[in-house]
Design a protein that fits this description.
This protein has a single domain, classed as YaeB-like fold (2-Layer Sandwich), CATH 3.30.2310.20. α1 packs antiparallel against α2. With 107 residues, it is α+β, with helices and mostly antiparallel strands. It has 2 helices and 5 strands, in the order βααββββ. Helices cover 35% and strands 26% of the residues. A hairpin with a 2-residue loop joins β4 and β5.
Length: 107
């Protein structure tokens, strides 16, 4: 299994890391470490998250990792991280990223 991040997920990690680093380098490192642990768990246990019917991608799942929410989908040997956000942003349901062409992936 491998983890592939959407453009939206990559941008969120970059922006959140930069934001946290401005306030606390330790918080930024903890955030990155928390995500790395979550991604390792997803690789080992891809069905660990909850199936959420209202996500825009049928069959996508949601994993809570500390204060952060990770929406993802799996296919064959890959975990596709669609979106990441802080739990306080939960009301801001976002569309999935257009970077991933699911038809091309045989979905």
């Amino acid at each position: 299994m491998k983890v592939v991040l959407s453009g939206q997920a990559r941008a969120y990690i970059r922006d959140e890391t930069a934001y946290l680093r401005r306030h606390s380098r330790q918080a930024a490192r903890f955030f990155r470490s928390r995500l790395a642990d979550a991604f390792e768990n997803l690789v080992a246990f891809p069905d660990i998250g909850r199936d959420i019917a209202r996500l825009p991608v049928p069959g996508a799942r949601r994993l809570v990792a500390g204060d952060y929410i990770i929406d993802y989908d799996t296919s064959h040997d890959t975990v596709y991280v669609l979106a990441i956000r802080h739990g306080r942003q939960i009301g801001e349901e976002r569309d999935t990223d257009d970077d991933i062409d699911f038809e091309e992936l045989g979905r």
